[in-house]
Amino acid sequence: MGWGAPPARCSFSRMFPGFGTPFAELSGIGTAHFDTDAGKVSRMAIETFYDVMRRQGITRRSFNKFCSLTAAALGLSPAHAQDIRNAMETKPRIPVLWLHGLECTCCSESFIRSAHPLAKDVILSMISLDYDDTIMAAAGEQAEAIIAETIEKYDGNFILAVEGNPPLNQEGMSCIIGGRPFLEQLKHAADHCKAIISWGSCASWGCVQAARPNPTQATPVHKVPGLADKPIIKVPGCPPIAEVMTGVISYILTFERFPELDNQGRPKMFYSQRIHDKCYRRPHFDAGQFVEEFDDEGARKGYCLYKVGCKGPTTYNACSTVRWNGGLSFPIQAGHGCIGCSEDGFWDKGSFYERLSDIQGFGIEADADQIGGTAAAAVGAGVIAHAAASAVKRARSGSSSASADTTTTHEDA
Amino acid sequence: MASTTSKPHTEETVYVYEAPVRLWHWINALAILVLCLSGYLIGKPLPAIGGEAYDHFMFGKIRFAHFVAGQILVVGFVFRFYWAFVGNAHAREIFHVPLTRPSYWKEIWHEIKWYAMMEKSPKKYTGHNPLARISMHILFVWGIVFMILTGFALYGEGEGPGVIHTLFTSWVIPLFGQSQDVHTWHHMGMWVIVIFVIVHIYAAVREDIMSRQSIISSMFSGWRTFKDDGSSD
């Protein structure tokens, strides 16, 4: 079956044909659900998303609204709301294994707060979240059994969502799940999955546990040696925006493929523009009106935070458009610069409150102006010294030739 | 050699810098001046302006100056590269350095000793001296290529998806890691250019005074005059 065929090797473009007929083939296969009380696994005929939503008391009207809003959130034309509706009504839910490595669970916390267009109960119904140890009822051996069961039952068909990353040093001993290194669990699940979602900056780039000097050698998912060659979508951010996470899932569900990715593996629909490009404080940037200190007049007037280290101009994310907490606000709106949490290595660029980055590798931490300015000053001093020496040489040769009186060297010519 | 230069000598002159090269040189110099000043201010903005945003466009103007000067520099550089093919032999010097020729390295060594004041007299060169040639090749040519690539990559960020983004931004940013790193290295590149300018101007002035040929006036007139008619060694 198409969904079960070995996925295209690594290439994103070649992955899409593999997604051609995937989910429909799953219908009729039972899927696992967690009983709310005991973490026991019961079986029922696979439900569509729509079935689950209706069962949870969501009206048809609300469902239609949800489809329209999701289409809008994904930047699709109104006609695509119908596609989303069709997908919801006819397709079985995607089985998802959500594994946690070295992380802080902020991705999960963000995810469950997706406010609109997707209520958390709705989005949790869209996927068949077979395993997510932080929010599932099952625990211990029962929980671990679900992983094995999902892998066995949906071999090659489930989506592996990874939150956090594995440490490689000491054979992965810095992150143990169920008595085994997370590294092993990740590799095993990756061997059998259809595709991987790297949730958050940990899985995408490494984040804080991979900051210098990275003692455990925490490694983002796509760089784990020996990991099966599966398509990976990166959804960076610390955490990613809830609506971005649910938007990515909605897209995969509706169109049976990844959204279009940039060449770093991030969905273009959310990561092709900088915070800066859509920042509502941008007019102050262009005017040259900056906050100099956090308690100055400029801060009170809502000037641009560029000079107090805002990383908006170098950060690709959707915060300035989608915003946070149901579109309520985002860091810059709250008066604090962007720290660039969705960018690779954002912990290692020096202070969050400095405009210029620290450049590593000079033994001390210094920014481009400190290093360049020092070098230019040294060269300038060298030039002055050299000029002085040249003048002395010239004066000497001049006087010596004058005393010799017979010849002058060509330098004097 | 050169022992009787106080005697009248015929001044040999050679046409070295063709008019387009001279014109490029000065336009390029002006563009670099504007780029360094505006670029520095983009990295470290002036004290904030008060009032309302709609009354001002200061930072926008500074960035505009930077972009305009950058585009002029790029057009000039492309033209200068083209001129290396159609111009005279000297027009090729800064683009092509004969690194594999042992005699070239010997001459560089001689020139280093001349600058270290261990050599009594410099050699005569119609075009650039070998040390100047390699310095310009590395610091200027490759420095400017680096600045053009990173500069367009950063420009493409603001432009968004499009030709510049595809040609530069799409691969330069992943190459450096992330956008902030490109900014940082573009900023470092400015200091490399500043250092080049310091050395370049100093060497031109010093050579004009102490070498056996004209330097500064040549970049205005195009003609190189030799101050003695001794042999080239």
UniProtKB/TrEMBL annotation, chain B:
<keyword id="KW-0812">Transmembrane</keyword>
<feature type="transmembrane region" description="Helical">
    <location>
        <begin position="134"/>
        <end position="155"/>
    </location>
</feature>
<comment type="similarity">
    <text>Belongs to the HupC/HyaC/HydC family.</text>
</comment>
<protein>
    <submittedName>
        <fullName>Ni/Fe-hydrogenase, b-type cytochrome subunit</fullName>
    </submittedName>
</protein>
<keyword id="KW-0349">Heme</keyword>
<keyword id="KW-0408">Iron</keyword>
<feature type="transmembrane region" description="Helical">
    <location>
        <begin position="64"/>
        <end position="83"/>
    </location>
</feature>
<keyword id="KW-1133">Transmembrane helix</keyword>
<keyword id="KW-0472">Membrane</keyword>
<keyword id="KW-0249">Electron transport</keyword>
<feature type="transmembrane region" description="Helical">
    <location>
        <begin position="185"/>
        <end position="205"/>
    </location>
</feature>
<dbReference type="InterPro" id="IPR016174">
    <property type="entry name" value="Di-haem_cyt_TM"/>
</dbReference>
<keyword id="KW-0479">Metal-binding</keyword>
<dbReference type="InterPro" id="IPR051542">
    <property type="entry name" value="Hydrogenase_cytochrome"/>
</dbReference>
<dbReference type="InterPro" id="IPR011577">
    <property type="entry name" value="Cyt_b561_bac/Ni-Hgenase"/>
</dbReference>
<feature type="domain" description="Cytochrome b561 bacterial/Ni-hydrogenase">
    <location>
        <begin position="16"/>
        <end position="222"/>
    </location>
</feature>
<dbReference type="InterPro" id="IPR000516">
    <property type="entry name" value="Ni-dep_Hydgase_cyt-B"/>
</dbReference>
<dbReference type="Pfam" id="PF01292">
    <property type="entry name" value="Ni_hydr_CYTB"/>
</dbReference>
<keyword id="KW-0813">Transport</keyword>
<keyword id="KW-1003">Cell membrane</keyword>
<feature type="transmembrane region" description="Helical">
    <location>
        <begin position="23"/>
        <end position="43"/>
    </location>
</feature>
